[in-house]
Structure formats: structure tokens, C-alpha cells
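Q: Could you fold this chain for me?
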Amino acid sequence: KDLRTTFRRLLRLLDPDRFRLIVVIVMAMIGVGFAVAGPKLLGNATDVVFRGVVGKQLPAGVTKEQAVAALRARGETRLADMLSAMDVVPGVGVDLHALTRALLVVVAVYALAALFGWAQAYIMAGVTQRAVYALREQVDLKLGRLPLRYFDSHARGDVLSRVTNDIDNITTTLQQ
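A: Sure. Below is the predicted structure, expressed as C-alpha cells.
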């Protein structure tokens, strides 16, 4: 009913793990940074393959400028513009060493993203379990203080079902 008060109470429950929560947030930002960088780096590897394929199709022994001039002379200006913007060596195929380096960087970046994600989930699991344990203790004390007439008007199974469901929802939310 009162989201602000409930949220404050939840934050107070998480207060003992404040440092861990800050670490989790920093790890999330770093992990997302690596995950975002992955496709860009994979694009670099794709560029190496593309340059090699285009370079292999050009005649060996000519310079890039000569190949561009020949394309312009034939009226293929779009292809000539594309070729002039590329770092390609005519007659040379895919540079396997550059491709290997680029792919190793991609694998390392995705591995680091996964490592940060795992560490974040691991730390957050501990934070969540400690908070939920404290919450369950508070609920148990609260239910123990309720007068018997409360349970006369409310089915005990309904009360326990609601408490269990609400705590499970909080656990899921914190874990995610």
C-alpha cells in the first residue's frame, strides 16, 4: 500500500551489505561494458575477413590506388569509393594472424563479461540470502506476537501462504 515506506524498510534490511551492493553495481557496469564492447570487436574481426576476401579478388602486383583508378575508369565509382576507404592489399587474402588476434580479444572480452556476471550473481546470492533470512526472522517474530483472535478471523494457511509468497517474490527480485 505504501511503496516508499516498504522500499525504505527493504533498504534498511540490505544496509549491512551496503559495501557488497556497491561492489555488485560496479561489477554490473564493468560486465555490461565488456558485453557491449564484444560486438564492436567482433565487427573488427569481420572487417579482417572482408578485407581479405576483397583483397584476394583484386589482381596481385597492383597498388590499391591503381585498382581504384581502374574501377573508376570502368565506371564503377561506388565500388571504387568503397575500395579507397578500405585498408586492403590487392592479391592478398585473409590475414590469419590478425584474425586470430581479433578473435582472441573477442573471446577474452566475452569471458570477462561472463566472469563479472557470475561474480555479481554470486555476491548477490549471499546478500539476498542474508536479507531474506533476516526478513523471515522478523516475520516469525511478528506472527508470534499476533493475538490468537487474529487467527480466528484469518485462516493460518492463508497468512502463511501470503507471507511465503511475498518473501519468495522479494527473494526473486533481489536475486535478479
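A (continued): DSSP finds seven helices and no strands in the chain.
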